[in-house]
Structures are given as C-alpha cells and as structure tokens.
Amino acid sequence: MSCRICGSNTKTFLDLGNSPPANSLLSKPIREINKFPLVLEYCTNCKSVQLRDCLDAEDLYKHYFYETPKSLTLDQHYRYLTNFLETRNYLNKNTTVVEVGSNVGDYLKFIQPKVSSILGVDPAENIAHKANKEGIPTIPDFFNLDVAKDILKKRGNVDLIIARHCFAHNSNPHELLKASKELLSKDGHLVIENAYVLNTLENNEFDQIYHEHMFYFSIQSMQKALSINGLKLIDIMISLIHGGSIVFIASNIQKVAKKSDSLEKYLNHELTFLNEELLYNFARNTLKIKDDLKKIIRDIINSEKNVIYSYGATAKGNTLINFLELEDGVISYCVDSTKIKQNQFLPGSNIRIVDENFAKSNPPNYFLLTAWNYKDEIIKKVREAGDLDSIFIVPFPSPHFA
Ligand code: TYD
After folding, report:
1. How far is the CA of 82 from the centre of ligand 1 (A)?
2. Residue 259 Cα to ligand 1 middle (Å)
3. 327 pLDDT band (50/70/90 cuts)?
4. Sheet holding 366-369, edge to edge
5. Nearest to 382 by CA among 402, 352, 353
6. What is the pLDDT of residue 254?
7. pTM
8. Which residues line ligand 1 (CB under 6 A)?
C-alpha cells in the first residue's frame, strides 16, 4: 500500500488476523461478530508504522465506551506533563488551550487554573455530554478544518492545541494537522502525545495494535507529517505512561523555531534503533508470547479448580484475548472500574465485565493483567482490598507473574 503520511510504498511485517473493533463492548454476547483485519505496514521512507486497513472513524467513535479512568498514575502523569509544558514556556497564565479528543475533560480540568481558557473537542457524543455536564466546555465533534474555522470565528486563534492519545485514531493525520495550523496563533504550539513506536516494538506490546490505533508514530514520521502541513517539530518529552509514550511539541513558526537538545538526542537514538530488524523481532516475539501465554493459561486451567479473570476491559486486552484464541469459559470474568463498561461483554470473547467489588468478594486464583499499564496501582489496590493470594499474569515484555 502507499504510506498515508508520505505516499511511499510500505512493507507488511505483521498480520494478527481478524479482530472485532476493540472498544465496541456488547450489551449481550454475540457469536457471529464482525471482524476486520489487523495488518501492520512499515514505511521505509518516513519510518512510520501503520494499519493496512482503517475502519471508518464515524463507526468507531460515535458511541464510545472509553472513559479516562480515575487513576493515580494518570494524575502523576498530568503533573509531569504540565510541569514540562510550563518549564519550557509552552503554557502559562495567558495561554488559551484547545484539547482534541478531550474525553470526559480530566486533563482540561487539571490545567484550567493554570491557563487563560480551555475548550474540549471530542466526537463521542455521550462522552462530550458528560464533560459539558461537569462544566468542561466540549464540542461534540471530530476536530477538522470546519470545526477549527468555527472555533476561530467564535474565540479567535488558540495558543496551545493538545492531542493526547488520539492523534493516531484518524486514518488521515493531515486533516488534524491542517485544522491545527488553521487555528493556532502565529507563535502557537501543538502538543501531540502518543504511544512511541520504539517502546511498543522493544517491549513487544503487540496488544497496542487495534483498529483505533491506525498509526504507531516515530519521531521521523511525525516530523514528516508536521512539515508537510507547515508545522515544525521542536521538542520531545518521553514518559513511561501507557507502556512508553512520547510527547511531540510542534511550533507554528517554521523558520526561526530552534530544536531542543531533547529532540536531537531522541532522534539520534531512534536513528540507531528503529530498523527492520527490530520490526521482524517484534513479529517473531508476538508469536512466541502467544504460545507462551497459551501454555501458561492451559497449565493453570488444567490444574483443578483454578479460576482466571482478566483485569481491565481495555481495548488492548481485546486484541490480546482475541489473538490468543482461548476456548470459551477459560477466562470467567473481566474486572473493570469503569461504570459504563460493567455488565457489558467483551467483543469476540463474550467475557462479562464485572466491577472491582465482585472480584474482591469472589477472588480468582489468577488475573490476566490486560491493563498492565496500571500494573503497580492495580496490584496495590487488590492487595489493600485484602486479596493477597490471586496471582497476576503480566503479558509484557514477556509473560511473567506478579
Ligand atoms: P486503558 O489502559 O486506558 O485502556 P485502552 O487499552 O483501552 O487504551 O484502560 C485501563 C482500564 O483499566 C480502564 O477501563 C479502567 C481499568 N482500571 C481498573 O479497572 N482499575 C484501576 O485501578 C485502573 C487504574 C484502571
């Protein structure tokens, strides 16, 4: 296929088979669910990794079950990110902010006291409605050129546009960048936070591959996408959140903006380590992890009275569980703290989602940790709730127990 960023030919390097859209939880179990391919392509020109087949964004996001979880790990990350933005002078008391994919508005609420104004944009009508009810002004729409022009007319230019973990959720990244270019003030900044492809590949996190994640950005591919749209990558922040994330800072000033030392350093690192060998290792490790996890789970189930739940009704958990092709009933329940997910069923595996109290009253022998990005926080919570015995199976970077 041709790369959606730069138009060059791509190479296929991993096929995870067919999977249902990972966030489309079911109100009742469905046997014959629609499944779509998860095939990964690599562009040797701009060094981007992307899905071969992208689903229609309207279908994926109009009614959406993903609500930002309440989490100490996330609170800590918000402080870390905001501190970085303040220290490097991308954000201050006079900054006007628009957040794209703002979900229920948790991050906007966090930075509200530190900036001049906030506005969210999120296509999931149910989620945007909730944000508005909580007092976070949110436009229920996709961020595109029309919406950018509308905001421009009503509020004027914006100093800072933030897109956290949503930028890869659109098959046409140029659309979002064009809209950002239109709305940013002359010396404004665009902040894009995303899983970093180098971490995804090095940690074997193949469960990050699902239909919403249409791109797995490298610094080189982001630089290319930005420059095509008249924006310039000037800074980078790296964080451990979600298995390894990167924050790209782009300036609207093309010529004078100076690159930071962090950008130089991480770009050099990427030039050394992001190569085809890493991609093919990742593809091999994916198959090995599948075999190893299946064996661990088979051994657990074969020994008498053992019960396994999964922990976290995550999108990535659905990729993992569907890819493992476990028999019905092997995982009895999935535990999740998000109210709107509870009593729904995971697509493909039809596992019922229960709340954390259920797991507390009926602890299993093992939890398959499908929200491994909150590992420390979840294990601590379970232990403090009195369950000292359930063993956690952590799938990545290679299956182990905790
Ligand atoms: P997330 O990692 O954001 O998922 P995705 O793969 O879909 O991007 O979601 C974490 C899930 O874990 C979320 O549904 C809430 C759940 N969770 C708990 O059940 N208990 C907890 O203590 C935490 C922190 C999260």
Report:
1. 22
2. 35
3. very high
4. 352-354, 333-335, 308-311, 366-369, 391-394, 400-401
5. 402
6. 79
7. 0.94
8. 66, 69, 71, 312-316, 336-338, 341, 371, 373-374, 377-378, 381
Nearest one of 375, 335, 327, 372 to 354, comparing CA atoms:
335
**pLDDT at residue 67, as a whole number:** 85
Q: How far is the CA of 336 from the centre of ligand 1 (A)?
A: 7
Q: Which atom of ligand 1 is nearest to the CA of 373?
A: 2
Residue 65 is classified by DSSP as: -
Q: Is the pLDDT of residue 61 over 80?
A: no
Copy the structure tokens of residue 201: 């590949």
What's the rounded Cα separation, in Å, for the pair 256 and 254?
6
**Angle of helix 375-384 versus helix 72-87 axis, rounded to 10:** 140
* Nearest Cα to Cα of residue 208 among 381, 69, 14: 14
Q: Which atom of ligand 1 is nearest to the CA of 341?
A: 14
Task: Quote the CA–CA distance of 171 and 189 in Å, as a whole number.
Answer: 23
Residue whose token pair is 């994640």: 213
The answer to whether the bond into 397 is cis (omega within 30° of 0) is yes
> Which residues share a beta bridge with 215?
50
Ligand 1: which residue has its CA nearest to atom 22?
378
Query: Which residue puts its alpha carbon closest to atom 21 of ligand 1?
Result: 378
**183 Cα: distance to centroid of ligand 1 (angstroms):** 32
Q: Could you tell me the distance, in angstroms and rounded to a whole number, from the CA of residue 312 to the centre of ligand 1?
A: 5
Q: 377 C-alpha to center of ligand 1: Å?
A: 11
User: Per mean pLDDT, which range of 55-69, 273-287, 388-402 is the poorest?
Assistant: 55-69
As a whole number, mean pLDDT of residues 163-181 equals 95
Confidence of residue 256 (pLDDT cuts 50, 70, 90): low
Residue nearest to atom 24 of ligand 1 (CA): 71
400 strand-pairing partners: 394
Identify whether the C-beta of residue 48 lies closer than 8 Å to the C-beta of residue 198.
no
Q: What totals of helices (H) and strands (E) does the chain contain, helices first? A: 13, 17
Tens-digit pLDDT profile for residues 270-322: 999 999 999 999 999 999 999 999 999 999 999 877 999 999 999 999 999 99
Nearest atom of ligand 1 to the alpha carbon of 242 = 2
